[in-house]
Predict the structure.
Amino acid sequence: MDRALKSRLEAQLGSVIRGAVRQRGDQTEIRIAPADLPEVLRTVHESIDMRFEVLADLAGVDTGDTMQVVLHLWGERSSDWLRIIVEGLPREKPRCPSVTFLWPGAEWLEREAYDMFGIVFDGNRDLRRIFMPPDYQSFPLRKDFYLPDDASRSPGMGVRPVEKPHAPAVAEPDPAAAIRRSPAS
Amino acid sequence: MRARAATLVRSSWIQLLDRLSITERLVLLLIPPAIGGAVVTILAAALVGPAFVDFLAANLPLVRFFVAVVAILLLTVPTAFVIIYMELKVIARMNLRVGPNRIGPWGSGMSVVHGLKVLIKEDFAPTGADLPVYTLAPVVTFLASAMTLLVIPFAPGLFGQDLNIGLLFFFAMGGLTVLGLLMAGWASFNKYSLLGGLRSAAQMVSYEIPLTLSAVGIILLTGTMSLNQTVLAQSGSALDWFVFKQPLAFLIFFIAATAEANRTPFDMTEADSEIVAGFATEYSGMRFGFFFFAEYVNVFIVSALTVTLFFGGWTAPFDWPWPVSLDPIDAWAAGPAWIALGLGAAILGADVLAVVIRLFGGRAWSIPAAFGLGFLVSGAALTALLLGACFIAFDWFAGIVWFMAKAYAFVFVFVWLRATLPRVRIDQLMGFAWKWLLPAALLNLFITAAAVILLDR
Amino acid sequence: MPRRADRTRQPGPAEALPAAGPRPSLDDPRVMLDRQAGALFEEIPPYPARTEREAEFYTPTEGELFLNIGPHHPATHGVMRLVVKLSGERVVDVDPVLGYLHRGVEKICENSDYYHVIDQVDPLEYVSSLFQEWAAVLAFEKLMEVEVPQRAEYIRVLSAELLRVQSHTLYMGFLALDLGGLTPILYSFIERDEIVEMLAALTGARMLFNYFRVGGVNGDLNHEFMSRLGDWMSRAGKQAEANAALLNENEIFVRRMRGVGVLDRATALGYGVTGGNLRASGVPFDLRRVHPYSVYPQLDFNVPTRQEGDSLARYLIRVDEIRESIRIIDQCLHQMPDGPIMAPRLPRLLRPKPGRAWGAVEGPRGMLGVYAVSDGTDQPFRFRIHDPSFLNLEVVPHLLPGNLLADTMAIVASLDPVMGGIDK
C-alpha cells in the first residue's frame, strides 16, 4: 500500500482520474477515459518520481454494460502494481488508443484484446486476429457470445445469453437481463 | 448349353480353389513353372552348356567382373542393414536407452523390418513434381555410392577391378552423389527440399576438395593411384600403415568424409529440426529407401576408403608371433567326410553338454531343451574352430576379417559422432571447409612432397 | 498427378471468404491450394491484407520466398507457425501465426468455480504447471484476503522450485535437440523423471498437479516425497553440472549460440519480455526480488544476470538458475516450520466479495500474472492470464531478420516458448 504513490497520482493526474485512487493490498487502481490514455501513460512512464517502465499486462474486460481495457504497470520507484482501468468503451464499437507508442510489445496484447472482445486500438499497426482464424466473425470472450454448431461461420451478431453450466435448456426470456454484469466494476 | 457347361466347369474350378488354403494355392500356382523351368534348364544345360562354359573360360576377366559387380550389389543391402541396426542400437545405448529389442534376437530383425517397410509403402509423387527427375534422383545417388565399391580391395585377390586410377575413380563416382541430391531437391516441388538440396550441393562440393587433396599425399607416398597397390605398400606391420606417416591427412580426410557422407555434425542437409528432411522430404516408400540405403552405403565406403588408405586395408596389424599353418592337414583329402565328421562331433558334443546341463541345471532343463542347447553350443564351438582354421589357412579369409573389422570400427566412430554432436550451421560448415581444411590439406601436401624428395636423396 | 477422384470433390468454403482480389502468386503463404497447382481448379483467393504490417510482410520483393515453418514441425515447441520470408538462406522477416492450441481457457474459467479454475489453468504451461496455479491462487487470495500459513508457503516454494529445476533441465534438452544433438534430451528426461516422480508422491500427479489451493496446498509432505527428495538432493548439484557441461563445453553448440539473436535492454523492456530472457539482456528483474511474494524475502539466493543478451547468455542464465533453485530448496528444507497447510475456516464454496485482484509469480519463463475480477458469485467474472511466453515470442520478429534459417531454431529454442501458455 503505497500512500506516496496515491498522492503523486492525485497531484499529477487528478484531473483525468475518474473517481478516487483506490488501493488494496499491493495494488493501486485508477480509472480514466479512453481519450486520456496516452497522456496518462506518458506521465506515469516518464515522470521522475513514478517511472513505471514495465508493462505487465493489457487485458480487455467486458462488464456487461460497457467494455474496459485494464493495464497493469510496474516501476522501480513504487512497491505497488499500478492498475489503469480505461472504462466506458461502448459495447457496440469499442475503441481505445493504442499503447504501442510506448511499449512495442503491446501490439500482440492489443491483438488479443481485439480478437477476444472486438476492441479496436487506434494506432496499432497490426490489428488482426491472433488466436482465432482470420475469417472468424465473432468475439469469443464477450458476454453475449454464443456457440452454435458451426462456430467458424457464425455471424455472432445475435444476442443470446451465455450458457450457464447447470441452467435449464430453455432460453431465458429477457436476453438483455441475462447478460452477466459485474456490480462493482 | 455350351455357356452353361463352361460356367459349370469354371465354377467347379473355383470351388476347388476355394477349398485350398493360401499356401496350397501358391504351391499349385508354382508347380507348373517349376516343372517347366527344370525341363528347360536341363535341356539348356545339355545342349548349350558346354559351349557356354567354353565361352566363359575364354573371357575370364569378363566373368570375374560380372561376378564382382553382382556380389557388390548384393553386398550393399546387408551392409546397410547392419549399419542401420548398429546405429539404432549404439545410439540408443549412448542415450542410456535400450534400442530395439523385440524383433529378432536383440532387435536385429529391426533392419529387415525397416527394409520391408520401405518396400510396402505407397509410392506417390507430389503434385507438381518433375516425374522423370524425381524418380531418377534416388537411383543416381544409390548408383554413385554403390559404384565406388568396385575398386576397394577387400582381401588379397578379392576386389572388383584393380584400376590403376582407382582413387580417382572413387572420388569421381563419389561426386555423382551431389547430382542425385540436387535432382531430388529440385524435382520435389517443395521449398524445404530445394533448400536441402542446395545446401547439400554446396556442402559436398566444398568438402570434396580437402578430401581429395588429403588423399594426394598418399599418392605421393605410393606413387600410384591404385588402391590395391596402396594396401600392398602398407603390408608388414601396423607401423607401416600410412596413418603414422600422414596423420594430418588422416584427420582432414576423416572430417571431410563425414561431410561427404552427410553425417552429423555436418548433416545440415537432413537437419530434421529445421527443414524436416531436407531433400528427401517428399520421398517415401522405396524411393526414400534408396536414399536411406545410399547414405548408409556411403558411410561404409568412406570407412572402407579410410581403412584402405590409412590403416592398411586388409593387412593384419601384427604378424602372429608363432608360425601357424595348416599344411600338415590336407584340407581336401577327406572330402565329404569332413561333413560327417563335423556332424558327428556336434552330436557327440551335444550329448556331453546335455549331460552337463542336466547335472547342473537340474529339473529346470527338460531333456529336449538340454539337447537343443548342447547342440547349439557344440555347433557354435565347431563353427568357431572352422572359422579359425579358415582364417589361418586362407589369406583371403583373414584379409576380409581384418578389413571388415577395421571398416566397422570406423563406422562405429561415425555412429558415435552422430549420437554425440549437435549440428554445425551451414555458413560455419562452409567456412570451416574453405578456411581451415583446405589450407591444412595444402600444407600437408607440401610437407609430404618435401619429405619425399628429401628422403629420396 | 490429377486423379479422377479429385474432380468430383466440391470446392471448399470459398464462398465464405471476401471477394477475390488480383490473381495471387503461388508463393503467397495465405493461398490455400488444396488441389493441383495452377491447373484444373480455381484457386481459393487469399485474404486481402487487413493491416499495414500484413501488407508489408506479404508482398515479397525480388528474390524473396516464403517458407512456412508450419504447425506440424519437429522443432517448434508445440504447434506454432512461423511464416518466414527468406532471401536465400537469410531471414528477411517473420510472421508468427498463433492460435493452433487456443483452448479458450479464460472463457471456461468464467464458467467454473474457483476450485475448478485451478485445474483448468494447469495445462497452460504444462511443463511447469504449479506456477500458473500459484499465480491464480495468489490472485484469489488477494481477492478474498486469505492468510496462508507459513508451512504451506514453504511447501509451495519447495515444490515450485523443484519444478523450475525440471523445467530448465528440459529446456536444455530441447535446445540441444533443436540444434541436432540427440543425447542431451534423454539425459534431461532422466533428470526430469526423478523430479516428477517426487512430485507425484507429493501431489498425486506427474504433470498437471492441481495441488495449490486458495489458502494453502492440498496435501502435506509425506515420507516417500522426503526420501526421494533427500536422494535427489544428494546428487542434484553434481548431476546438473554434468548435464550442463555436456553443452557448455561443446564447441559446436557454443559457436552456434554465441552472438546469435542479441536482444538489447531497451527492446527487451519495450516488448515486455520477462524472466531469464530479460535477465540475459542485463535487467535484473526477478519478481521474487523486486516484488516479493510468499516467503521469498526470507530466503537467500542470487539473481543471475548477464549482459550479452545472446542465445548463449539466455542458456547460461538458466543453468545458473538451476543452481540457485537447488540452494532455495535446501533452505526451504531447513527452515520448514510445522503447522497447518490450509488456511482455517475457509468456506467450501468460495464466494469472494466483488472486486479485482492481480497476482504475479516468477515462473521459469518469466512473469506469470493473473487478473481476476469477482462479481460476488462463485464463478470469476473475468479471469485473465498473462503468460510470459506470449511476449517472449513477440520479440522473434525483431530478432530473426538478418540471421540464417538455421539460427531460427537456435533463437526460438533459446527463448523457451511453451505453446500451451502462448495460445491459452
The longest helix of chain B spans residues 60-94.
